[in-house]
């Protein structure tokens, strides 16, 4: 997938797909109409744009993700860290926690992630 950052509206639409996939394109049009107040043409235009960028596919009238939401967010996060913090996760965490301390549960979750990373 090419590097791509969707705008706020495209992101809301992508979330609709991720939450409901696989979904028929007809049902997606209805869902976008009710949720985003979009017309059919808008839905298909944005779907085509996101499909061209490798995020989703619309085959035989069924829309599915080429990449899970979690995988997409992981790529976006890594790209942000690379661009903003020279690829340094510790520098990112230092900046992130500079204004507000992490809670005990957040610290425990980070310790667990570190332990899992060390294991394998």
Walkthrough of the structure:
There is one protein chain. With 120 residues, the protein is mainly alpha-helical. It folds into two domains: 8-69, Winged helix-like DNA-binding domain superfamily/Winged helix DNA-binding domain (Arc Repressor Mutant, subunit A, Orthogonal Bundle); 88-120, no CATH class. It has six helices and three strands, in the order αβααββααα. The chain has helices at residues 8-20, 25-36, 40-52, 69-85, 89-97, 104-119, and strands at residues 23-24, 56-59, 62-65. It has a three-stranded antiparallel sheet with strand order 1-3-2. Helix 1 crosses helix 2 (25-36). The protein is elongated.
Mean pLDDT value: 93
What's the number of helices?
6
**Total beta strand runs:** 3
Corresponding CATH architecture of the largest domain? Orthogonal Bundle
Per CATH, what is the topology of the largest domain?
Answer: Arc Repressor Mutant, subunit A
Proportion of residues in β-strands:
5-15%
Principal-axis shape equals elongated
Summarize the structure.
The protein is mostly helical and 120 residues long. It contains six helices and three strands, in the order αβααββααα. It has two domains: 8-69, Arc Repressor Mutant, subunit A; 88-120, no CATH class.
């Amino acid at each position: 997938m090419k590097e791509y950052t969707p705008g706020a509206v495209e992101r809301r639409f992508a979330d609709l797909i991720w939450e409901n996939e696989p979904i028929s394109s007809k049902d997606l049009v209805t869902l976008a109409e009710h949720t985003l107040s979009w017309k059919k043409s808008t839905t298909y235009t944005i779907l085509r744009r996101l499909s061209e960028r490798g995020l989703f596919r619309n085959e035989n009238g069924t829309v599915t993700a080429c990449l899970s939401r979690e995988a997409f967010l992981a790529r976006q996060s890594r790209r942000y860290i690379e661009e903003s913090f020279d690829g340094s996760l510790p520098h990112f965490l230092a900046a992130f926690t500079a204004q507000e301390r992490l809670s005990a549960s957040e610290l425990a979750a980070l310790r667990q992630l570190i332990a899992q990373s060390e294991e394998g």
